[in-house]
Target: Late embryogenesis abundant protein LEA-2 subgroup domain-containing protein
Amino acid sequence: MAKMKRNKPALICCGVLVSVIVVLAIVFVALYFSVFRPRSPKVVATVVGTSVSAFNVFPPVLNLTVHVSVAVENPNYASFRYGDVVTVLRYHGDAVGQSVVPAGEIGARATETMGATVEVDTIRLALIPYFFPDAAVGVLPFETTTAVAGKATVLGTFKIGARSEVVCEVTVFGLMRNATSECTSTVHIGR
Ligand SMILES: *[C@@H]1O[C@H](CO)[C@@H](O)[C@H](O)[C@H]1NC(C)=O
Ligand SMILES: *[C@@H]1O[C@H](CO)[C@@H](O)[C@H](O)[C@H]1NC(C)=O
Model:
């Protein structure tokens, strides 16, 4: 009799504890696969403006400034930390300008827009053999590449790394001192 009185509450207590653990585990797994599922951030870049303040074939001069707007949308219920956002301006594959936006953090389910201004280095540009034939025609093909890499830590445990790259084709019309642009982005999920 004395034994049963001692064991029965212990058995009930143990059963309740196991049930609570099982329920918590189910809730946790369900939440993880719904609300807290890590999602890759969306990165969209657009060329918001280009200015050609000077253009000359000989001596070679091209004062070109490209303003790129980079919007990073973090769909996670956790903040997203990103490293330096580097925008490189290339001419026929060679880097002729660069802009760096310092590393930062975007809050849960928030969007941050960063602006990058890249100026062309005329001296470096003039050394590229394509400059003279392109400048003679008056059409110079440029490309900007903006890379954003970072990670979100969901529920303090699950990490998702993502790397996005946005490439914008910028075609400069030297004689008319204006330009056209078109951007395309790619996302790489993983660490
Ligand atoms: C073009 O850039 C050069 C070098 O940065 C500068 O000396 C010159 O004044 C600029 N010209 C114009 C019209 O902005
Ligand atoms: C560039 O300027 C010329 C002359 O002002 C204009 O006809 C042309 O449409 C402009 N192009 C762009 C892309 O703005």
Remarks:
- Residues 1-34 form one domain.
- Residues 2-33 form the longest helix (32 residues).
- The chain has two domains: 1-34, 42-189.
- The radius of gyration is 27 Å.
